[in-house]
């Protein structure tokens, strides 16, 4: 990872490193590795963020957690950005209809972040994704489908700066464009498969994604088309709902 060069960029990278480990928290060393920064620099940033209430430190374990000020900032921003109330019933419906774990994720720059998770009835579940977890575009099924629906010039620009196998990513893009939904055949965790469908904003830009994950045999060849068609229908309906906001 290339470390941000400006102070705000470094602080943001550290905050994201802490957020990725919620609710258990993270150590200074782990946050430094995730942010691509030296440990002393990370510790200074964490101390400054703590003084502003943006991070907190567990007195027993010494692990860093997100701070209370972030909650208040999030509440203030929610009316403008929060669409989870509209997505929640769709995610629940997908989980109940399929028995798999269902998710709603949002694009944030070169990443996707999971906003909603709902587990289905099937007893064996994938724990790759949960609320707050981020993945680069083109990695998990949500990021694959969002990348595939971007214009070619944006796909090319992203693959030039991303730490991905560009040839493999382009294959996923082409396959996703053919079917409309993305398939992740256990690329993040072996044996854990995923499908994703894009949700668009009022300008037709891919902003969010619905996805399903589960064990490999639940995503066999004879079932994937039906799951993909269901995802596409729900994604289309959610796109229409969000456009009316």
Overview of the structural elements:
It is built from nine helices and eight strands. Helices cover 47% and strands 20% of the residues. It has helices at residues 7-19, 28-35, 39-51, 68-81, 84-98, 141-148, 152-161, 166-179, 224-243; strands at 55-57, 64-66, 101-108, 111-118, 134-136, 182-185, 192-200, 206-215. It has two domains: 7-75, Winged helix-like DNA-binding domain superfamily/Winged helix DNA-binding domain (Arc Repressor Mutant, subunit A, Orthogonal Bundle); 83-243, GAF domain (Beta-Lactamase). It has a six-stranded antiparallel sheet with strand order 5-4-3-8-7-6, sandwiched between helices. The relative contact order is 0.11. It has 245 residues and is α+β, with helices and mostly antiparallel strands.
Report the end-to-end length measured between terminal Cα atoms.
Answer: 37 Å
- Structural class, please? alpha+beta
The top level CATH class name of the largest domain: Alpha Beta
Sketch the topology as an H/E string, one letter per element: HHHEEHHEEEHHHEEEH
The whole-number mean of residue pLDDT values reads 91
The fourth-level CATH homologous superfamily of the largest domain is GAF domain
Oligomer: single chain
Keywords: DNA-binding, Transcription, Transcription regulation
Protein name: DNA-binding transcriptional regulator, IclR family
GO molecular function: DNA binding; DNA-binding transcription factor activity
InterPro entries: GAF-like_dom_sf, HTH_MetabolicPath_Reg, Tscrpt_reg_IclR_C, Tscrpt_reg_IclR_N, WH-like_DNA-bd_sf, WH_DNA-bd_sf
């Amino acid at each position: 990872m290339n470390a941000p060069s400006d102070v705000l960029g470094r602080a943001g990278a550290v905050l994201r490193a802490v957020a990725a480990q919620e609710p258990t928290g993270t150590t200074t060393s782990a946050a430094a590795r995730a942010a691509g920064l030296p440990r002393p620099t990370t510790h200074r940033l964490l101390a400054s963020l703590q003084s502003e209430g943006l991070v907190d430190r567990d007195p027993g374990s010494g692990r860093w957690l997100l701070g209370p000020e972030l909650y208040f900032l999030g509440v203030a921003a929610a009316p403008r950005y929060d669409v989870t109330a509209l997505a929640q019933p769709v995610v629940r419906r997908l989980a109940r209809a399929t028995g798999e774990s269902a998710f709603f994720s949002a694009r944030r720059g070169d990443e996707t972040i999971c906003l909603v998770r709902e587990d289905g009835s099937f007893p064996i579940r994938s724990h790759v994704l949960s609320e707050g977890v981020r993945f680069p575009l083109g990695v998990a099924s949500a990021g694959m489908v969002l990348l595939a629906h971007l214009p070619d010039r944006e796909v090319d620009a992203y693959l030039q700066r991303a730490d991905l196998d560009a040839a493999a990513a382009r294959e996923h893009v082409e396959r996703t464009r053919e079917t409309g939904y993305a398939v992740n055949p256990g690329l993040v965790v072996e044996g854990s498969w995923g499908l994703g469908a894009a949700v668009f904003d009022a300008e037709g830009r891919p902003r969010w994604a619905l996805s399903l994950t589960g064990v490999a045999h639940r995503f066999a060849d004879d079932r994937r088309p039906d799951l993909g068609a269901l995802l596409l229908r729900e994604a289309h309906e959610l796109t229409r709902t969000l456009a009316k906001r």
